[in-house]
Write a structure and sequence with these properties.
The structure holds two protein chains of two kinds.
Chain A lengths: L3 H22 L4 H6 L1 H11 L14 E4 L5 H11 L38 H15 L6 E6 L6 H12 L5 E7 L2 E2 L2 E2 H4 L5 H7 L3 E6 L3 H11 L7 E6 L22 H20 L1
Chain B lengths: L16 E2 L1 H15 L3 E5 L9 H6 L4 E3 L4 H12 L4 E7 L8 H10 L4 E6 L17 H6 L5 E3 L4 H13 L4 E4 L5 E2 L14 E4 L4 E5 L3 H14 L4 E5 L2 E3 L3 H11 L1 E9 L4 H12 L3 E7 L9 H7 L4 H13 L2
Parallel strand pairs in B: 2-3, 2-4, 4-5, 5-7, 6-7, 10-11, 10-13, 13-14
Antiparallel strand pairs in B: 1-8, 6-12, 9-11
Helix pairs in contact in B: 1-6, 3-4, 7-11, 8-9
The chains are: A alpha/beta, B alpha/beta.
EC number (chain A): 2.2.1.7
GO molecular function, one term (chain A): 1-deoxy-D-xylulose-5-phosphate synthase activity
InterPro entries (chain A): THDP-binding, Transketolase_N
Chain lengths: 279, 325
């Protein structure tokens, strides 16, 4: 576990790693990756019971990434947590790399599920949580789902089933960043009232500021005390967070920065880092 | 003698008829009694797929997801990720008909140990009509990396196929039927995934069949024999991995090859055989199956007759093929 300042510094490190990875790969998804850096940091450095030296430890908490396209943030987090050497991050999306364009279980230590086609991870998280619940395991299942991903009918099949089996060992984060490939979620397919939808489906809803480390810690702590129903954390996040020219822009959903843009982004993140260090 | 150890009086009118789905259901219970890691998941069709026998005995290992085949495959992958051996059951029209992507990524690409039991496959499902008569599932499943594809010929073979599938640490597709059909294999009939069974020897023509067409082919061979044409009949229960050795051996022995299946001729067992023949020993061939068409409502025997999937239909094409030799 790290203190708040350490967590913020780690999130900054992860953001810088994401930028370097994407510049090198020349493709990939910066928007959601940067936006989710704080949540991934809190999960892997504060919440999850896990052991990077033993990725398949039987009593570990399970982490399921459903919207696989934000895998740069997963990979950067796993590397910083010690699952594999950080220098491998720069091999993202390249021939022979363990860092596939979308995650592949079995190739990279710490990846619990293959993902990419949207809507599939949440079903797997529900399957894991059913086993954990039936067998009274102490581990929990944490999953991350994109908001645009909720367009997929399969997600609602899984959401209904989780409520049926009262999966209070399942904590799902919805990355409510309001963007998807073709525009804002409001334009493409309106999701609101999202919290009410989850409540109507039998879930406990907790809303949080997804780029505020303290808000994330508090919300997850609260989620862990819920009994008898699955928990969704609706995380308001800023896509592209930390890089001003990417923040809130849906056209940065799936476009990598070039080298010049990457340098600008790193410079900005370095400035933030210096402020964090003295703060 | 072929060593197939089929029932003695193959064409007796009193031969016991059961559905191959029953063999799956029995095997599932057998497996679960021995192994506490066996789980079953279904999508609102537990009785129809014979998963209810498992559900009654092992409710703690049974999951009912409702009419949600995409979630069915995903939830199963999640359960399998917790080191369980998972069997999913639904109608073939919907799983894999509706959840191909989930089977591809959540099961195959994930390396999940999930067995896919798909019942009510083919024209044989009859009165429900063409929407429910899936004829493309073998094509979809055999194209997938990692996937093993098995189409049992009767109830007893479905039981053995299910037991054998459990021993493989990879996804297996098991295709069964609702129709009660002759149980003509016995407990002594050998069964190994990937190894075809020679049901009848012959030198003039070889008929490869899977599922309900194996028995129909045996009947056709009996009729052909009366016309002095000796047909070998091979039960090609495993479409993938396919038994190249047996296919090549009989193609060389008979010089003409016929395939028969309750499936589109494109992409199914016949196509798989044609691929083997093209690469190993090009041989004149015909395929009995559905010719890029939808069928219709009717009972199984009526439909098999109309679409040439019964013994008479197989015999007719076999004769044409033999005459072309």
């Amino acid at each position: 576990m790290k203190n708040t300042k350490e967590l913020k510094l780690m999130a900054n490190t992860i953001r810088q790693d994401i930028i370097r990875m994407l510049v090198e790969a020349k493709s990939g998804h910066p928007g959601g990756s940067l936006g989710m850096a704080d949540i991934f940091t809190v999960l892997y450095f504060h919440v999850l019971r896990h052991d990077p030296k033993s990725p398949t430890w039987i009593d570990r908490d399970r982490f399921v990434l459903s919207n696989g396209h934000i895998c740069p943030v997963l990979y950067a987090t796993l590397a910083n947590a010690g699952y594999f050497p950080k220098q491998e991050l720069l091999s993202l999306r390249k021939l022979g790399s363990k860092l596939q364009g979308h995650p592949h279980k079995g190739t990279l230590p710490g990846v619990e599920n293959s993902s990419g086609p949207l809507g599939q991870g949440i079903s797997q998280a529900v399957g894991m949580a059913i086993v954990g619940k039936r067998e009274k395991k102490s581990w929990r299942v944490y999953s991350v789902v994109g908001d645009g991903e909720l367009d997929e009918g399969q997600t609602w099949e899984a959401i209904m089933l989780a409520a049926k089996y009262k999966l209070d060992n399942l904590i799902t984060v919805v990355d409510r960043n309001n963007i998807q490939i073709d525009g804002t979620t409001d334009d493409v397919l309106p999701l609101e009232p999202l919290a009410d939808k989850f409540r109507a489906f039998g879930w406990c809803v907790i809303e949080m500021a997804g780029n505020d480390v303290n808000s994330i810690i508090k919300a997850i702590g609260e989620a862990q005390t819920v009994s008898g129903q699955p928990i969704v954390l609706i995380a308001r996040t800023m896509p592209g967070k930390g890089v001003s020219f990417m923040e809130g822009k849906f056209d940065w959903h799936g476009k990598a920065p070039n080298r010049e843009q990457g340098e600008l982004a790193i410079k900005e993140l370095e400035t933030e880092r210096k402020l964090l260090e003295v703060g | 003698m072929t060593g197939a150890n089929l029932i003695p009086d193959l064409f007796s009118p009193t031969v016991v008829k059961k559905a191959s789905r029953d063999g799956f259901g029995k095997a599932l219970v057998e497996l679960a009694e021995k192994d506490p890691n066996v789980w079953a998941v279904t999508a609102d069709v537990s009785e129809s797929t014979r998963t209810h026998w498992f559900a009654e005995k092992f409710p703690d290992r049974f999951v009912q997801v409702g009419v949600a085949e995409q979630n069915l495959a995903g939830v199963a992958a999640g359960i399998a990720a917790c080191d369980k051996l998972v069997f999913i059951s639904a109608f073939a029209a919907f799983s894999p008909g509706r959840n191909f992507d989930q089977i591809r990524v959540s099961i195959c690409y994930n390396g999940s140990n999930v067995k896919i039991h798909a019942s009510h496959a083919g024209v044989s499902v009859g009165p429900d009509g063409a929407s429910h008569q899936i004829l493309e599932d073998i094509a979809m499943m055999r194209a997938l990396p990692e996937m093993v594809v098995v189409v049992p010929a009767d109830m007893e073979e479905a039981r053995k196929a299910t037991l054998a599938a459990a021993k493989l640490d990879k996804p297996v597709y098991i295709r069964t039927s609702r129709e009660n059909t002759p149980v003509f294999t016995t407990q002594q009939t050998p069964f190994t995934i990937g190894k075809a069974i020679v049901c009848r020897e012959g030198k003039d023509i070889v008929i490869f069949a899977c599922g309900l067409q194996v028995y129909e082919s045996l009947k056709a061979a009996e009729e052909l024999s009366k016309k002095k044409i000796e047909a070998a009949v091979i039960n090609l229960h495993t479409i993938k991995p396919i038994d190249i050795e047996t296919i090549v051996k009989y193609a060389k022995q008979c010089n003409v090859v016929l395939s028969a299946e309750d499936h589109q001729i494109a992409g199914g067992m016949g196509s798989a055989i044609a691929e083997v023949l093209c690469e190993h020993c090009p041989t004149s061939m015909k395929r009995v199956g559905m010719h890029s068409q939808f069928a219709e409502s009717g009972n199984c025997s009526e439909l098999y007759k109309k679409y040439g999937l019964d013994a008479a239909g197989i015999e007719k094409v076999a004769l044409e093929l033999f005459k072309s030799k």
